[in-house]
Specification:
The chain is mainly β and 307 residues long. 0% of the residues lie in helices and 47% in strands. It contains no helices and 28 strands. β12 (111-112) and β13 (115-116) form a beta hairpin.
Length: 307
C-alpha cells in the first residue's frame, strides 16, 4: 500500500536524495508503539518492537509480518553485535540482553555499582565490539511500556565491554537520554535528549560529541539540532554522515554540520527508523506510531556490524 508523502525540500541537495517514483509505502499496521528497528541483512528481514504488547516482530518482503520473539521483556532498542547476534534493551528486566544463535537469551548487564539500571532504551554496537546504550527512566515511569518502579540511578549513557564485562558511564549530563548513533567513521556520537517528561517543558534536543581515538570516552558534548515539531527519538545515519531523525511530522534529514536539508512527511509521529532493504541499504524503514512504513531513497545507510 502506498501513501501520500509530502516532501519538503529545504536545501536543493535534498532533491537528489528523493526518488520521484518511490513513494512512502505502508507495510503493516495495528501495533501499539513501534520501536527498535534493525535490519538483519543476512536474514533478509526487519526486526522491530511492538513495545507495549511485549513482542518483537519480523517483517519480510515476501512473508509480511510474523512474531519473532514473545514475550520480549518489553524490549526497546536493539542492534546486532559483531557475531551477528541481537543485543537489546529491556524495560521490564531493566537490563541489556543478547539473543544467542540458538535462541536463548543472555543478560549482559543489569546493575551499575550495585544498583539496578533504570530502563535501557536505545543501543548501538561499535566496530570494536563494545555496546553503548542509554538509560532513562521511561520504562519504569509507567506500566504501559514496562513496570512502574523506583529509580536507583540517575539517567546516563553507558559503554559496556562484553570482553571484560566492564560497564562505564559515558555521560550523565542528560535528563532523558534516548536514541543514539555513531557517525560512519565512529568519530562522533549523536544522542537524543528527550528530557524529564514530568516537567512542563522538558529539554529536548539532539546532541553530538567526539569519541576519543581509543573509543573509551567522549568530549565536547554540545547541542547539534532541535527537531520541531516534536523531538528526536530514534535516529539513523547515511553513508555520508547525514542524520535522519524521527519527528512529530515525519523524518528530518540533517547535514553533518547541523543544517536541515529536508523532510519526509509521515502520517503519524515517528518513533524510530533504520536503513536496510538489501545489500545497498537504500530503503528507509520508519516506525510511525502504530504503523510501519518504508521508502526507497537515493541514499545508502551507514554500515553497522553485520547490518
Amino acid at each position: 500500500m502506498t501513501t501520500g508523502s509530502p516532501i519538503e525540500i529545504v536545501d536543493p541537495k535534498f532533491s537528489s536524495y528523493i526518488l520521484a517514483n518511490a513513494p512512502l509505502e505502508e507495510l503493516a499496521s495495528g501495533f501499539r508503539w513501534i520501536e527498535g528497528l534493525v535490519w538483519m541483512g543476512d536474514w533478509g528481514c526487519l526486526l522491530f518492537q511492538d513495545l507495549p504488547r511485549d513482542r518483537t516482530m519480523r517483517w519480510t518482503e515476501t512473508g509480511g509480518i510474523s512474531v519473532w520473539r514473545s514475550p520480549s521483556a518489553n524490549a526497546n532498542g536493539q542492534a546486532r553485535d559483531c557475531q551477528g547476534r541481537v543485543v537489546f534493551c529491556s524495560h521490564l528486566d531493566r537490563a541489556v540482553g543478547r539473543v544467542e544463535h540458538d535462541g536463548s537469551v543472555t543478560t549482559l548487564v543489569s546493575h551499575f555499582n550495585g544498583r539496578r539500571l533504570n530502563s535501557p532504551n536505545d543501543i548501538v554496537v561499535k566496530s570494536d565490539g563494545t555496546i553503548w546504550f542509554t538509560d532513562p527512566v521511561y520504562g519504569i515511569s509507567n506500566d504501559y511500556e514496562g513496570l512502574r518502579r523506583k529509580s536507583e540511578l540517575a539517567p546516563a549513557v553507558y559503554r559496556f565491554d562484553p570482553a571484560t564485562k566492564g560497564l562505564t558511564t559515558i555521560s550523565s549530563a542528560f535528563e532523558g537520554p534516548n536514541g543514539l548513533a555513531f557517525s560512519p567513521d565512529e568519530s562522533r556520537l549523536y544522542i537524543a535528549e528527550t528530557g524529564d517528561q514530568t516537567k512542563p517543558n522538558p529539554a529536548q534536543v539532539m546532541k553530538v560529541c567526539d569519541v576519543s581515538p581509543d573509543g573509551r570516552a567522549i568530549s565536547g558534548l554540545c547541542d547539534f539540532y532541535k527537531v520541531e515539531p516534536g523531538y528526536t527519538d530514534g535516529l539513523a545515519l547515511d553513508e555520508d554522515g547525514n542524520v535522519w531523525s524521527s519527528a512529530k511530522d515525519g523524518v528530518h534529514c540533517i547535514s553533518p554540520q547541523g543544517e536541515l536539508l529536508g523532510k519526509i512527511g509521515v502520517p503519524y509521529r515517528v518513533s524510530n527508523l533504520c536503513f536496510g532493504g538489501g545489500p545497498h541499504l537504500n530503503r528507509l524503514f520508519i516506525g510511525g506510531s502504530h504503523t510501519l512504513y518504508a521508502i526507497f531513497l537515493n541514499r545508502r545507510g551507514a554500515r553497522t556490524p553485520r547490518g
